[in-house]
Design brief:
Elements lengths: L7 E4 L5 E7 L9 E5 L9 H13 L3 E4 L16 H14 L5 E6 L1 H12 L4 E7 L5 H6 L5 H10 L1 E4 L7 E4 H7 L15 E6 L7 H10 L5 E6 L9 H17 L3
Parallel strand pairs: 3-4, 3-5, 5-6, 6-9, 9-10
Antiparallel strand pairs: 1-2, 2-4, 7-8
Helix pairs in contact: 2-3
Length: about 260
């Protein structure tokens, strides 16, 4: 299986195109599929997404991954993207590509999108695996941490370039901040009763581990476990982290009644 898939494209109602890869092994387990939801400004060719592609193929599981609007090989401009737009991208993929029961695996922002998708498609989404989950990050991890100079720049210019340890600076739009407020989850109970597994590094400089604990407390599901790795960073892409991810999925699949 190629780690750099030649994508197919899902046409969206407004004419934009989402790049996606949908793998269905010949000897397929028909019970459930896996859908990967990547992070802010990431794409479907990253280490975790690729590892899951290889693991799912060996396990005989259908596996779907895609690039959000303005990410990777999809059309659109990144700074025009919003949480609403990216949630709708995920729902489009679930409705048209990754049909049938799914486990959603969401990383960072992708965990927020996965939670929103599970709320919107409760019959289809059977479980969540959330890696360094960042629900509400536009407010709790961006806006609330910005000083008044940055906030004024966003209000005046509509864009702020935030330095990043990973790549070129993140261009954050005021539109993203404002739209994120429509989808905040951590202010009250999150009415999901499905199994949720959270993998979090305690050395994560981008999403503090206490943010993951708040999410666990906020979910109404009683079937929530949190795995903390003391030296783990935000990416959680070291070999031990990847083993933990696939082992978590294997145990979750064995426990599901689908």
């Amino acid at each position: 299986m190629s780690s750099q898939p030649q994508p197919s494209f899902l046409q969206r109602p407004d004419g934009e195109k989402l790049a996606f890869s949908h793998d269905t092994p010949e000897h397929r387990d028909e019970s459930v599929g896996i859908t990967w939801l990547g992070g802010f400004k990431s794409d479907m060719t990253g280490t975790k997404a690729t590892t899951l592609a290889e693991w799912a193929g060996t396990a005989g599981l259908a596996y779907t991954r895609f690039d959000y609007f303005g990410h990777g090989q999809s059309s659109g401009t990144f700074t025009d993207g919003t949480i609403t737009r990216w949630r709708d991208d995920a729902l489009g993929v679930l409705d048209e590509i990754a049909t049938g029961p799914q486990i959603l695996v969401g990383s960072s922002m992708g965990a927020w999108i996965a939670l929103l998708a599970a709320l919107a498609r409760p019959e289809q989404v059977k479980a969540l695996v959330l890696i360094a989950p960042a629900p509400d990050f536009t407010e709790a991890l961006m806006w609330e941490g910005f000083d008044e100079t940055i906030r004024a720049t966003l209000r005046r210019e509509g864009i702020y370039s935030q330095p990043s340890d990973y790549d070129e600076p993140y261009e954050i739009s005021y539109r993203l901040i404002e739209d994120g407020r429509k989808h905040l989850l951590l202010g009250g109970d999150i009415p999901l009763t499905l199994p949720v597994r959270i993998l979090q590094g305690m050395a994560d400089a981008d999403v503090p581990w206490r943010h993951a604990m708040l999410l666990a407390e906020t979910l109404t599901s009683n079937d929530v476990t949190v795995s903390l790795t003391k030296k783990g960073d935000h990416r959680l892409s070291e070999p031990d982290d990847l083993d933990r991810l696939t082992t978590t999925l294997e145990a979750l699949l064995a426990s599901l009644d689908v």
